[in-house]
Amino acid sequence: VDRILDWYDELNAVRNGFFASRGLFDQLLPASTAVGAANHAGTALCIGAWAMGIPADVGSVAEVPSPLQGSPRDYGAALSRAVELTLPGCRRLLVSGTNSIGRDGTSVRGKHAGEQAERTLDVLAALLESRRMCFAQTLRAGLYVREVSDLSEVRRVLAERGLGDLPAVAVGADICRPELRFELELDVVGGVLGGTSAM
Length: 199
Fold this sequence. Notes:
There is one protein chain. Helix content is 23%, strand content 21%. The protein has 3 helices and 6 strands; from the N terminus they run H-E-E-E-H-E-H-E-E. The chain has a 6-stranded mixed sheet with strand order 1-2-3-6-4-5, with helices on one face. Strand 4 (138-145), helix 3 and strand 5 (168-172) form a beta-alpha-beta unit.
């Protein structure tokens, strides 16, 4: 989102209206990440999306709440914290961009990227554990930092947590609130619950 901090509230209002007009609030809201960066075409938005249909006799798609964060709907963001696809033989968890936000939707845990990364990793670890998954099962991660200079501090925190080899692409981007300096999204694959061990 180009200049996300200038119009994020407006973007959320338009997204909410669009989703409401199509009945999505009564169904499944997507996992989603919105960060701020300009793009080569000079457009306000650059969007990538997955759309899929899974027949009920083959698998399922379900919203996964975060044990340490409230619903984004409570503060006007129309997205799921995570969405789990259950398919024959595996589960795939698409985790929305996650940052240092508390249960009540307020930003928490310090001004520095490292402190925010610690809180974010705690939130993500609890979410993964709730699905009997772990960071080692990450296929892809998007790691966003407000300032490129924040990256060394974030990498230090990742290394201290044993996540130095997390398959993450680091991108310099504005986060959706001016006080936030770090955000992380994940794509994780695990075994079927009750069958193959997910750990």
